[in-house]
């Protein structure tokens, strides 16, 4: 399927009021056909393709120089026809016996050419880009407001004292997407997980159900924004490529430099909004990853804060002291591990972790108990690492 039809089909998946802002690819494609016809009509098709006209003296081949004039909001193409000596300093001395006509023909010439259809093409394209930039700015403002409201609502439902602590688990099922396809897969997986676990039915407060509904709507909006942005970027890139291929006018480099300040080219709106969503919610909901032990990479339960300030779980510190490790494993602060004792236990941090991460702490405690049991059986002479079942002494 050709890109024009794919673009029309994909645009139908967007909200109805968004479709009018999609780049009019088919109309711009027709403009390119008219540009080609215009170049052929004025005899510049061969020059644009990089060839010299046979009727022109080979000692003074003409060159077609193509550029843009104007600003981001309003610009047009500016083709000029000049000979190869145009960049040299002209001869201002008129030899005797030389006519003015002969002199004009001999001097380097530059001729500005007007291509109405080319100007129309880039006028329509620049208008579409400026409209897209304004539309995306409006969407960014609207979605940012929704994110702030959602963060305020979740701040009450995600409290460890609230009856609904499901948000403490839900916020870890999203990942930052890279493409529209991956985003859609992650969103569908997230919806399936909510249905499979019946999370919506487990909410006990109305605010939690409302927050989940708003969160799902916001994710759908982000998915649509990402698809909208990618469609327009692809359409613009392809139409410029087609323009250069059909007309042989090198517009790509000039156009990209001219439109660089535009929001559509400067950054990805969906990624900016997704980053804002993550930052707003991560401020509200503590993450277990921020409380990991740098050695075992699990939650640093019973956190030991060394004199250098680095925090490790008690199990790793006990193991480090048994292996005669004296310095901090991270910054190599002298004797930080050796001097650590029960006074280095970070009680406020431990209470905070107990409040917010009960599941992680329970799993960590099981791991600690298992390791302790292995140490105990080694003391009585049993090798806990032996394969097989029961051993009769």
TrEMBL record:
This is SPX-domain-containing protein. Keywords: Metal-binding, Zinc, Zinc-finger. Residues 293-332 form the RING-type domain. It holds the Pfam family SPX. It comes from the Eukaryota. The keyword Metal-binding applies. Residues 1-257 form the SPX domain. SUPFAM superfamilies: RING/U-box. One of its GO terms (molecular function) is zinc ion binding.
């Amino acid at each position: 399927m050709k890109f024009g039809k794919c673009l029309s089909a994909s645009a139908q998946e967007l909200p109805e009021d968004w479709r009018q802002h999609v780049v009019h690819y088919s109309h711009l494609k027709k403009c390119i056909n008219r540009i080609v016809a215009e170049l052929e009509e004025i005899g510049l098709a061969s020059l644009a393709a990089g060839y010299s006209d046979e009727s022109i003296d080979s000692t003074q081949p003409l060159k077609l120089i193509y550029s843009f004039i104007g600003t981001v909001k309003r610009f047009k193409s500016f083709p000029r026809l000049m000979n190869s000596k145009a960049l040299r300093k002209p001869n201002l001395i008129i030899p005797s016996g030389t006519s003015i006509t002969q002199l004009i023909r001999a001097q380097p010439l530059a001729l500005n050419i007007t291509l109405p259809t080319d100007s129309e093409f880039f006028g329509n394209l620049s208008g579409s880009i400026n409209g897209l930039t304004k539309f995306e700015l409006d969407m960014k403002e609207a979605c940012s407001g929704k994110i702030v409201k959602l963060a305020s609502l979740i701040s009450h439902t995600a409290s460890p004292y609230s009856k609904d602590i499901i948000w403490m688990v839900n916020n870890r099922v999203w990942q930052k997407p890279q493409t529209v396809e991956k985003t859609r897969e992650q969103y569908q997986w997230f919806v399936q997980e909510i249905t499979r676990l019946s999370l919506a039915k487990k909410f006990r407060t109305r605010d939690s159900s409302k927050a989940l509904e708003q969160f799902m709507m916001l994710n759908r909006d982000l998915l649509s924004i990402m698809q909208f942005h990618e469609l327009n970027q692809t359409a613009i890139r392809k139409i410029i490529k087609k323009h250069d291929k059909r007309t042989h006018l090198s517009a790509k480099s000039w156009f990209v430099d001219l439109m660089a300040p535009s929001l559509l080219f400067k950054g990805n709106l969906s990624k900016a909004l997704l980053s804002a969503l993550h930052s707003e919610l991560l401020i509200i909901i503590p993450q277990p990853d921020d409380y990991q032990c740098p050695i075992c990479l699990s939650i640093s339960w019973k956190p030991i804060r060394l004199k250098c300030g680095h925090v490790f779980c008690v199990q790793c510190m006990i193991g480090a002291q048994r292996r005669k490790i004296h310095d901090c494993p991270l910054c190599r602060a002298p004797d930080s591990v050796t001097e650590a004792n029960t006074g280095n236990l970070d009680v406020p941090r431990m209470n905070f972790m107990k409040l917010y991460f009960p599941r992680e702490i329970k799993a960590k405690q099981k791991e600690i108990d298992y390791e302790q049991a292995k140490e105990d059986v080694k003391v009585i002479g049993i090798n806990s690492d032996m394969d097989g079942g029961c051993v009769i002494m």
